[in-house]
Amino acid sequence: MSDTAVYIHIPYCKSKCGYCDFCSSPDTSTADEYTAELIRRIKLCEPGNAASVYFGGGTPSYIGAKRLIRVLEAVASRFHLSSNCEITAECNPGTTDEGELRELRLAGFNRISAGIQTAVSEELAALGRTSHTVEDGERLFASARRAGFDNINLDLMYGIPGQSAESLDKSLSFVTGLGPEHVSAYALRLEEGTPLYREAPRLPDDDTVADMYELINSRLRGAGYVRYEISNFAKPGYESRHNLRYWRGGDYIGIGVSAASLSGNVRYVQSPDMEKFLSHIPPDTVETLDGAARLEEYVMLRLRLAEGIDKKDFEIRFGRNFEAEYGKQIKKYVNGGFAADTAERFYLTDKGAFVSNTVIADFI
Ligand code: SF4
After folding, report:
1. Which ligand 1 atom sits nearest the alpha carbon of residue 92?
2. Each residue of 125-183: pLDDT tens digit?
3. Of the candidates 50, 126, 169, 340, which lies 20 to 30 Å from 194 by C-alpha distance?
4. Cα(243)–Cα(5) distance, integer angstroms
């Protein structure tokens, strides 16, 4: 049986954050029908083994534990979940209580991911993130721990309008004080079409944002986290297995509006249109990645990982020698201290990670 990872998209949120361009809506009137359609589609999947299941969104917890558990049961009826299967639910602050977290834990969910973003109320307001307070984040974390979750991710954001190194430091102290097993830290991007994009607020300049990234690295490292991907930090052994699969170029199955699947060289993407999804319309974008596209994507994703490119794996997948292919770039970035090159691997150093976009662009 094939080995895969299963992603379930839950497109509902308590309110829409000002910077969000994910497929989500506060209107939950379709939640029952949507749950039923997810289950119907899961039951049509080819049986296989799943090493991870990830409920993302949106805010999965917003539709309640019972619906999520029914969907997880459908996944478990179709896929053999490995004994150490990582089963994550995104649960944003202010959308779930301890009783529901206990239900999720009992049903087999073993990882929670929560977007707290910042410990500064004014920054939550600047993000247009009105669905929760800083204290809600703290409460959710404590409830998840009491409910038995010993693997929790917290999302942080930097480059927020009005944010300074000092205020970011405060958020980092808040997060390290809670002590989650995993922290994701992404820079704010103004995505076209979002309210924040239209507002065009003044953002911290590039140098300040670069300093913020350095601060995140040093504070989290000092607290025992390892940066295993450009924006992701984990206590040893708590790296996200689900996301590692994406970054390492493995196959996955995504179910739900806007969800993507990858099977070999073919990517399927479901339309974000709820009506189409509820009318049983299958993924309407089917893209066959040619060798060049697959190679580009592989290099781009692998260079984001601290483990970098495994030269043998590269040769097996693409029938090419990594050093012969990228000799010029390897020399340039190793000499500049941006990358390290061993017989087995090529990877970005901290200095390279700070300018990863530029380095990766040079490779692809
Ligand atoms: S909670 Fe997440 S998915 Fe929902 S609106 Fe905010 S950023 Fe978007």
Report:
1. 1
2. 999 999 999 999 999 999 999 999 999 999 999 999 999 999 999 999 999 999 999 99
3. 169
4. 9
% of the chain exceeding 70 in pLDDT: 99
Q: Does residue 275 lie in a domain region?
A: no
- Which of 229, 255, 256 has its CA nearest to residue 243? 229
Q: Which of 9, 13, 257 to mutate to test the pocket of ligand 1 (most atoms within 8 A of CB)?
A: 13
Task: Round the CA-based radius of gyration of the chain to a whole number and report it.
Answer: 21
Query: If you measure from the C-alpha of residue 13 to the centroid of ligand 1, how many angstroms do you get, rounded to a whole number?
Result: 6
In-domain check, residue 132: yes
Q: List the one residue out of 235, 296, 287, 239 whose CA is nearest residue 266.
A: 287
DSSP-derived 3-state class of residue 282: coil
Place of tokens 């969000």: 20
Question: Which pLDDT score, from 0 to 100, does residue 20 have?
Answer: 94
Q: Dump pLDDT digits (tens) for 301-338.
A: 999 999 999 999 999 999 999 999 999 999 999 999 99
Domain that holds residue 170: 3-247
Euclidean distance between CA atoms 160 and 121, whole angstroms: 12
Which residue stretches of the chain have pLDDT < 50?
Answer: none
285 in any annotated domain = no
Q: Is residue 91 located within the same domain as residue 240?
A: yes
- Report the alpha-carbon angle 55-59-60, nearest 5: 40
User: In the structure, which protein residues have their CB atom closer than 6 angstroms to any atom of ligand 1?
Assistant: 13, 16-17, 20, 22, 24, 57-59, 92, 115
Structural domains of the chain, count: 2
Q: In this structure, which residue's CA is closest to atom 7 in ligand 1? A: 20
Q: Are residues 241 and 306 in the same domain?
A: no
